[in-house]
Amino acid sequence: MQYFIKPLAVSLVTIGLICGQAVASEKIVIKSGDVHGDGYPTVEAIKYMGGLLSDWTDGRISIKVFGGGVLGAEKEMVEQVQIGALEMARVSVGVAGPIVDEFNAFNLPFVFRSADHMYKVTEGEIGTELLEGLDKGGLVGLGYMDGGSRSFYNNERAITKIEDLAGLKIRVMGNPIFVDMVNAMGGNGIQIPFTEVYTSIQTGVVDGAENNPPTLIEHQHWKVAKHYTLTEHLMVPEIFVFSKRVFDKLSDEDQALIRKASRLAVLKQRELWKAKVGVAVEKMQAAGYAIITDIDKTPFIEATQDVRNKYGAKWKSLMDKVAAVK
Predict the structure, then answer these.
(1) Which residues pair with 31 in a beta bridge?
(2) Chain-centre distance of CA 212, in angstroms?
(3) Is the pLDDT of residue 22 over 80?
(4) Distance (Å, rounded) from C-alpha 320 to C-alpha 317?
(5) At what angle do helices 316-324 and 125-132 cross, to 10 degrees?
(6) CA–CA distance from 141 to each of 97, 111, 195, 223, 258 (Å)?
(7) What phi and psi values does residue 33 have, to the nearest 5 degrees?
(8) pTM surpassing 0.85?
(9) C-alpha 185 chain-centroid distance
């Protein structure tokens, strides 16, 4: 394991252990990985968490964030966290699916009715149990972050009702669930790499795609697809995890501080994400972009019920519990 060590600071592994727990007076530098870069809400929230820990401990505990995927893809970072080579990482729940299969249920359309519903689920008994299940994979689940909601955009016509999706070629992520989701709503789901979305819309390979407003702005998709509809058919939360191998060597007090800072980082990330979405929407509207917000989601939800039945049968109990959260 490698640590970034300042003068007089020591590694947890080399000499900072007494009876299996880290000496409270030693400096601890937590390395945290993310595929997003500086300025992105998840990255800034972890930096905020590090600032809290540093303030609370007079600099004894700090976090060094490695963004932009410099430590590898999400799967690779999780593997590093599992063996203790990396202390912490922010990843999508899909990466945790091999450890806690129920996380995969969050990839189904319209599992969450709104962002507030998602927050209540992830903060409550359901979300807590799923995070605790990560222990068996060598991970300590610290919390959930808002990955945004995905909605449809295209360059053909405004989608004001489900019938408007008929025949539209919509790019989706490489998962059969998402292909079936679009097809169930009358469109034609097509899997292509994300890096090809702009040119594919521009050249007519697809008519549009689905994603959140900040992505449209940052990747210039809004310049080739002029109609955006807030269907919010997918809301997939993200998680940040700590190495259980490292966490178990920390003192009870330090573990409690990390968990406390994690809860505040969750709230900070939500705040930052909402602000980022707001800026993106304002920029789109200022440019005359058509954003459809007044839409009846019921037909879209009903049309995708077979998709939830097909892929979610083994998670039915979980999904019933999620639906029951008010």
Answers:
(1) 64
(2) 12
(3) no
(4) 5
(5) 140
(6) 13, 21, 31, 39, 11
(7) -110, 150
(8) yes
(9) 25
Q: Evaluate the CA torsion angle 89, 91, 95, 97 in order and state its sign.
A: positive
d(CA 254, CA 252): 6
Instruction: Provide the pLDDT for residue 94.
Output: 87
Helix (H, G, I), strand (E, B) or coil at 215: helix
Q: What would the two tokens of residue 253 be?
A: 């007090």
Count other Cβ atoms within 10 Å, centred on residue 219: 15
Retrieve residue 326's tokens. 């008010």
Residue carrying structure tokens 């178990």: 248
* Alpha-carbon span 178 to 233, nearest angstrom: 10
Give SS3 for 9.
coil
User: Across all residues in the chain, what is the average pLDDT?
Assistant: 91
Which domains are assigned to the chain? 17-147+237-277 (3.40.190.170), 149-235+290-324 (3.40.190.170)
Measured between alpha carbons, how far apart are the two ends of the chain, in Å?
44
For residue 28, which phi and psi values (nearest 5 degrees)? -125, 120
